[in-house]
Design a protein that fits this description.
Length: about 350
């Protein structure tokens, strides 16, 4: 059955949606690095490296925004902390360039705006340099962010909660606020992608990959192709957090667990070189808005799976997927199956 019209119907609804993203926003900074220059610094006597072709993009929670806007979501509001430093200014510029509402990206002086510096050496990422991973938000700033999000919640379709860093904006102590916010706004879909503190949330869709699933349950790691293990552990985590689970399985597809049913899709076969950086962000963000727009878990899972396949084919960047790209990949997949 051709699902093209069903996908397109979902996409047309996205322009009327308002999505909030709260969490750790960062700038990804790429540049080409040359180490073997043959030049020695007169000042230090040490070898000189050369950089070129510097380019920036949205990272961490910012990559969620990038994916939402690429998909055609009408309004995205961000909630987080930034400083008026070089990375903070670039972060706001990139967000505002997409038409994002940055009113609630608040300033804190004792803060390093978050950045991932990624030198590319012969088309491979070299040692990364991170800024802002150990920030500590002030209680006053967090109260303001929570208050503002609570004020807007009644008009939101989705709240996406992101925790990226070891000392992040969001931590276990914030869970009570989000659990209550979800209870107060049953019309709104809540989804969380949290590396360390998602176990404290209740009633909020939790996005995990197979490694994170094993770690959260304190079980031995298992391969993503082991569907039986995915089902067993996915069900266990769902019961633990009392909420649906979105499980990304890389080259083995995706699964969505609810108390009534388990939904699953196989990954799209790809033969080209792949770059999986940010693919989880694509899958989670696309699933959340398409589910909110359709209330059809299987349909949303299919679209998110296609979007992730589009994303991973974009090399040396945190890729996104547009409706046009998703439909084109879907159509080519159909034709491929017919030919087989």
């Amino acid at each position: 059955m051709d699902r093209t019209s069903s996908y397109q119907q979902v996409f047309t609804r996205l322009s009327d949606m308002h999505i909030a993203v709260i969490g750790d926003f960062a700038v990804d900074i790429y540049y080409n690095l040359a180490k073997e220059t043959g030049e020695i610094s007169i000042e230090t006597g040490k070898p000189v490296h050369r950089g070129s072709s510097i380019r920036t993009s949205l990272g961490a929670a910012g990559n969620l925004v990038n994916n939402l806007k690429a998909l055609g979501v009408g309004k995205v509001s961000v909630f987080g902390i930034v400083k008026n430093d070089i990375y903070g200014r670039e972060l706001k510029y990139l967000l505002q360039k997409l038409g994002t509402d940055t009113t609630n990206l608040l300033h804190q002086e004792d803060w390093d705006s978050c950045a991932y510096i990624k030198p590319m050496l012969a088309n491979e990422e070299d040692f990364r340099l991170d800024f802002g991973a150990l920030n500590k938000p002030s209680d006053e700033i967090m109260e303001k962010i929570h208050f503002r999000l609570k004020e807007k919640a009644n008009n939101l379709n989705v709240v996406f909660i992101n925790q990226q860093f070891p000392k992040p904006l969001l931590h276990a102590g914030n869970s009570t606020f989000f659990n209550q916010l979800k209870r107060d706004n049953p019309h709104c879909e809540f989804i969380a992608d949290m590396r360390h503190f998602g176990d404290n949330l209740r009633g909020i869709i939790l996005k995990v990959n197979t490694d994170e699933l094993a770690r959260r349950l304190n079980v031995a790691p298992f391969p993503s192709h082991d569907k039986e293990a995915c089902i067993t552990h996915g069900n266990a985590l769902m019961k633990k957090v009392e909420a649906p689970i979105l499980l990304t399985r890389g080259e083995d597809g995706m699964m969505y667990f609810t108390h009534r049913e388990i939904y699953a899709v196989d990954a799209i076969p790809l033969s080209s070189k792949l770059d999986t950086v940010g693919a989880g962000d694509t899958a989670g963000s696309v699933f959340s808005v398409c589910y909110a727009a359709s209330k059809d878990p299987q349909l949303a899972l299919e679209i998110a799976n296609l979007a992730a396949a589009v994303s991973v084919q974009k090399l040396f960047q945190t890729g996104t997927a547009s409706p046009k790209e998703i439909i084109e990949l879907y159509q080519s997949t159909i034709h491929s199956k017919v030919s087989d």
